[in-house]
Amino acid sequence: MNKKVLTLSAVMASMLFGAAAHAADTRIGVTIYKYDDNFMSVVRKAIEQDAKAAPDVQLLMNDSQNDQSKQNDQIDVLLAKGVKALAINLVDPAAAGTVIEKARGQNVPVVSSTKNRLVRRWIATTKPTTLALIPKSPALFRAI
């Protein structure tokens, strides 16, 4: 189930911006907490396979090697490269607020998946103009 959700989320994020941008401009950033995790390895391969169906999308994949500091740096680099959306599997779910604020500052939507329920405290919409943080909400995603 989680694999399908993350894969679908990454593809949806890419489709969200696919029609409005040129091939060289459509970059989707992905950070995975650890490539050598068996489950995340399957998810990564599924994301890469699905991305092949969208030739106008450039997928920028990152292995955070179970290091939140490294993941934060990767997100900074992805944002500097002008990604149109981020799909993030957090190393530390408590970092969700920091990560979303970084993306929010550049109007970049975030799709996140995590093995921990802490991320449910944060909400991100897919509309960059309304991307917001709302603490202690029961839902992961909510239209604002």
From TrEMBL:
Q: What processes does the entry annotate via GO biological process terms?
A: transmembrane transport
Annotated localization? Periplasm
UniProt KW keywords: Signal, Sugar transport, Transport
Q: One GO molecular-function annotation for this sequence? A: carbohydrate binding
Q: Does the keyword Signal apply?
A: yes
A GO cellular component annotation here is: outer membrane-bounded periplasmic space
Q: Which domain of life is it from?
A: Bacteria
InterPro entries on file: Bact_Solute-Bind_Prot2 (IPR050555), Peripla_BP_I (IPR028082), SBP_2_dom (IPR025997)
Which Gene3D superfamilies did the record assign?
3.40.50.2300
Q: Where is the signal peptide?
A: 1-23
Domain named Periplasmic binding protein: residues:
28-112
Pfam hit, one: Peripla_BP_4
Q: Which family does it belong to?
A: Belongs to the bacterial solute-binding protein 2 family.
> What is the official name of this protein in its record?
D-galactose ABC transporter, substrate-binding protein
Q: What is the lineage of its organism?
A: Bacteria, Pseudomonadati, Pseudomonadota, Gammaproteobacteria, Enterobacterales
